[in-house]
Amino acid sequence: MNMIFKHGHALLIAVCFTSATLSAVAQKTENPQPFVIPALREWQGDTGTFIMHDKTVLVVDPAYRNELTPVANTFLDDLKKSGAAKQVSIRTGTPAKEDIYFTLNPADTAKGKESYVLTIKDFITIAAPKSIGAFWATRSLLQILEQDKEFRRIPKGVAVDYPQFAVRGFVLDCGRKFFSLSFLRNYVKFMSYYKMNDFHIHLNDNGFKGFFGDNWDSTYAAFRLQNDTYPNLTAKDGSYSKKEFIELQKLADQYGVNIIPEIDVPAHSLAFAKAVPGVGSKVYGLDHLDLDNPLTYEVIDNVFKEYLEGPNPVFRGKEVHIGTDEYSKKEAEKFRSFTDHYIRLVESYGKKARLWGALTHAPGTTPVKSENVTMNLWYNGYADPKEMMKLGYDGISTPDGWLYIVPAAGYYYDYLNTKRLYNQWTPNMIGKDSFPENSAQIRGGSFAVWNDHVGNGITEKDVHHRVFPAMQVLAQKMWGGTKTTLSYEAFLDKNKNIGEGPGLNMMGKVRSKDSLVLQYSFNQNKQDPSGSGNAILANKNAKIDRQKQALRLNGGNSYIQTPIEGIGYGYTISFSMNPDKNNKPDAVLFSSPDAIVKLKQQSTGKLGFSREGYHYNFNYSVPVDQWTHIVITGDNKGTSLYVNGVLVEKLEGAKRTFPNGKQTAKVQTLFFPLQYIGDKTNAFKGYLDNLNVFNTVLPADKIKELAK
């Protein structure tokens, strides 16, 4: 224990990382270890609880004002978003009762730079060797508070926490599917909430030629970042400006996350061949760069330089990924030379290089630099981990047989086997090879989402639904390693109470005392047309028709705004409607930024929905000038329509068939939009009543009852 003197007062702060810190309170152990993800590495319970009050003060040690004030500011913002404290403030000085105190102990590095000690007494002390450790402590406190929103209790005790692995990562393929900037920004915060610190963004890729008429010209390819040297390189259907990408990295810095940008060459490189004719291989296919053409090196050099050069480069972080995956084995020597060139190019700008392991697949005599270079070890046949480590490479465990999500593809995993991962895997396992958990060359692990099947209907919401359970489990395994204190079943029981982080609800979970979460019955006898007390937030050109006792929407800019933006998978939406005769194509029933439900889907005249550029319709047209009862249910597999209590159609399990006979899934899920009944530009004309929203898929007999 260290004694720190501030303004003439002696303040005892428990910051020692040794077992002596914990044994001091061993005689009065009562509080069990609080549940957080990942679990605290060490815990010594005390008696009683700390109550988080609205006026709790975050106190920063003046000696470390510059390092810790940003941490306290982010914590304050998150506390307000989570509703845990409304009037919390920040000051420097010494703590009083009910405060949270931030300090550093730079000399105490025994558990690593990301470690921290959390001492919970009459006030809370967060002490760490570096500010990142203090930040991780705030994530633990936020998770504890999330599980006790009503009373905001934090059990007293001392936690010593530290990661087993330095790299705790996630790879997102943005090349074959565009993810909005807001999604990426939310993911920085989401990953940070689980102390996952490595966000690998795969910026370019292409589809498989076989799904595009076996024609390279029509095969989908995209490069997602603004490029001024080759403007045609930047994807037209979704990209990030340099400014946006820089701001994303700044946000990640704030939340303790490293952004690892990847430019994937010389395979997976059709976007370059389309932007600059001549650099694609005529022998191995245009998704392979021509390694005999000097223009190839000129173009790829220029692309990397655009993001690496200058005093304020676009790629701000310490590491850049150069791809180098799955090139033709016949050109191993040229591939090795290309790989070495781009490792050294990246290093010439003061960065460290990452690459995909491929050198077992591409054996040869051409040397490839290994010192201070990190490989994603994904398939032992492409890069044997033992062989690569002998060569001097550091590794990030990314085994495809454990950690690859390829949504709705029918191979690898649609959803990871989280039970198997929780019980059997840690980053020291790469394929069938196991290494000591403290191996210096295994930097950590990373799981991945690959969107191989371009255009299969998968949305951001669908991807997140797959990632969320994996993130919770793998956060535990990458932080805690082999040490687990709970069975998988106990972990599943408890993790339901921890979400995505303050202000985030990408899963669209809507909680209530029972399954009915929103209800509007537009009855003239009710001042507030809400059967369950759900107030209308806004109203535009929509009114309650007293004669019809229903909501009247008048087309165009006509809507009411509800308190719920949308609801995620596992829902039932029930309502009655009476449309006018003269509704236009794409007339909107419900809308939000995520999706639109339409009375008339485009020119079909049929009930349908649109999201992320995909347009689907049921084989049903709603009759005009009469009341019809509609129920729509949805889960992560598909969307169903019931009319007057009878199932009309289930959009699920559809396939797209290509001329060559190949098939891919056609995913027809719907994250149901509820922000607006109606729309700001093209609302339907007619009446709507008795809207009921349930956070479960009701059985058929219950749906029949709703229609009565």
UniProtKB/TrEMBL annotation:
This is Family 20 glycosylhydrolase. Residues 1-26 form the signal peptide. GO terms for biological process: carbohydrate metabolic process. The lineage of its organism: Bacteria, Pseudomonadati, Bacteroidota, Chitinophagia, Chitinophagales. InterPro entries: Beta_hexosaminidase_sua/sub (IPR025705), ConA-like_dom_sf (IPR013320), GH (IPR017853), GH20_Enzymes (IPR052764), Glyco_hydro_20_cat (IPR015883), Hex-like_dom2 (IPR029018), HEX_bac_N (IPR015882). Residues 165-480 form the Glycoside hydrolase family 20 catalytic domain. It comes from Paraflavisolibacter caeni. PANTHER family: BETA-N-ACETYLHEXOSAMINIDASE (PTHR43678:SF1), PUTATIVE (AFU_ORTHOLOGUE AFUA_2G00640)-RELATED (PTHR43678). The active site is at E326. Belongs to the glycosyl hydrolase 20 family.
